[in-house]
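Predict the 3D structure for this chain.
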Amino acid sequence: MLIRLLDILFSLLGLFFGFPILIIITIIAYFDTGSPIFRQVRVGRNKKSFTLVKFRTMRKDTDSVASHLVSSSSITNFGGFLRKSKLDELPQLWNVFKGNMSLVGPRPGLFNQEELTAAREKCAVFNVRPGITGLAQIKKIDMATPELLALTDKQMIESLTLSKYFAYIIKTVTGSGFGDAVR
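Done. Predicted structure below.
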C-alpha cells in the first residue's frame, strides 16, 4: 500500500515537473519520426493487458517485437539519445499514475514472448504490477534470457523493501539501470 502511494506521488510530481521536458521531447520526436508517442499492449499484473506509452525511439515501420530481436539500425539518432538518457521512459509515469505499472517492478513483456511469460508464470511474477525499473535492469539482464529474467524478477519481488525501492530508482536515474538491449 505504501509503495502504491509513493508511486502515485512520484508519478504526479514527475509528470508535473517534467511537463516542459515532455513537451520539448514530443516536438523534437515529431520531427524525428512523425509519431512521437509509442503505444504497445503489454502483459500486466495478473496477466491482464494494458497499453504502455513511451517516446518512440525506432522508425514507425519497425516490427512490434521484443527489443532484443530488433536491429539497432531501427533506432533513430534522437531515439538513441532518448534511450541512453532514459527519457524515452518518461511517458510511463502516466502508466504508473493510472495503476497499470509501478516505478519498481518486473519490466512488462509482450504477449508474443511466450517463453518469458511461461517462465514468469512459474515464478509468480504476474502477482505484482510491472515496473519501469527493477533488479534485472540494475543487473543488466534483459528479455533475451527469459529464465534468468524471471528468476531475477522473483528474487526482486520476494526481497523488495522500501529502501530497495528507492535504491532501484536512484540507480536507474543515475545511470546504473539499463533497458532491454537492441542487437
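Residues 57 and 83 are 7 Å apart (CA to CA).
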